[in-house]
Design brief:
43% helix; globular; Beta-carbonic Anhydrase, Chain A; binds zinc ion; alpha/beta; five-stranded mixed beta sheet; 10 strands; single chain
């Protein structure tokens, strides 16, 4: 090796790293995710995970939950199999919704779950107040247009109406979660026994995990991008607490509303770490390619059937 090459190499490595302060924080974040995953892997019931995967693959999921990406929404700790579509503002026009509906059993339930103090609704309101002009970012325009109504309740009602217009025979419940009171209030649709079961699981999570004081602002350390057919939420896969992971669901390619959700978390929540989590490395590569140019650190995590993840690359 020549002297010039050896003297150049370390400089390139240093340049490729994020600033040290960010790097240190990132090491902690990844360490927490890795340790959390070991915990999950030890606790996960493989038969349950397999049963969930099979039900989703056969199109027999009990529920489809269209929920906001906000990290503060409670985890569903229920024996029911739900397919989650997580996107900012829980908008039903997001393309992954239709794919998720194809995974739902015939008499299954669709839940549209919003929450108090939704950032997407706030952004929508200021966009309306400014005259609905273009933000200059096409995917953001699409998301702001897809959010409807001036409050989380109104938005959920409108989203349920849009879904029912397109799929009149679907059983849909629209609800809004308030972390101050722990209440999940129905604002649209007809509650059923299955709904009560799901609601009880959310309330259970709230009672055991939620400290409203900690949820006054959104502070996720990571954005997780996940496919629809993951058997558990990233919160469970990484044993991560409420408010730690902002979640965006994708069917194949990252769609416009998903990309806008990611940009929102990067810019408004200052979340600079993205974990790509999927069972196929080709999908991880595709997402990584789509996120090229974004000022974030990306970790790819290949999800295994035993509940463990293999981190493919940690630091860009
Ligand atoms: Zn929200």
């Amino acid at each position: 090796m020549s002297a010039s090459v050896t003297s150049q190499k370390p400089r390139e490595v240093v340049r490729a790293r994020p600033p040290f302060s960010k790097y240190k924080e990132l090491v902690t974040t990844i360490g927490r995710l890795v340790l959390g995953n070991i915990q999950h892997k030890n606790l996960v019931n493989r038969k349950e995970a397999e049963a969930r995967r099979n039900k989703i693959a056969r199109g027999e999921a009990d529920a489809v939950v269209i929920a906001c990406s906000d990290a503060r929404l409670p985890v569903l700790d229920s024996d029911k199999t739900a397919v989650f579509v997580r996107v900012a503002g829980n908008v039903v026009s997001y393309k992954a919704v239709e794919k998720a509906l194809s995974m739902l059993k015939k008499d299954g339930l669709v839940v549209v779950l919003g929450h108090c103090a939704c950032g997407a609704v706030k952004e929508h309101n200021s966009w309306v107040a400014k005259g609905k002009g273009s933000t200059g970012v096409a995917c953001m325009d699409k998301l702001l247009n897809a959010v409807k109504g001036a409050s989380p309740e109104e938005n959920v009602k409108e989203q349920v109406a849009l879904l029912k217009e397109k799929h009149p025979s679907l059983a849909v419940v629209g609800a809004v979660y308030d972390w101050n009171s722990g209440k999940i209030k129905e604002v649209a649709g007809t509650p059923s026994a299955l709904w009560e079961d799901l609601k009880a699981a959310w309330v259970r999570y709230h009672l055991t995990h939620t400290n409203p004081e900690e949820l006054k602002s959104q502070t996720p350390h990571s954005i997780a991008i996940v496919p629809l057919d993951l058997p558990f939420s990233p919160h469970r896969i990484f044993s991560a607490g409420q408010n730690q992971i902002f979640t965006v669901s994708c069917e194949g390619k990252i769609g416009d509303c998903a990309m806008a959700s990611i940009l929102y978390a990067v810019e408004h929540l200052n979340t600079k770490h993205i974990i790509l989590l999927a069972g196929e490395s080709a999908l991880l590569d595709q997402w990584e390619e789509q996120l090229r140019g974004l000022e974030v650190v990306i970790t790819k995590a290949l999800y295994k059937e035993d509940g463990g993840v293999e981190l493919i690359r940690c630091v860009e």
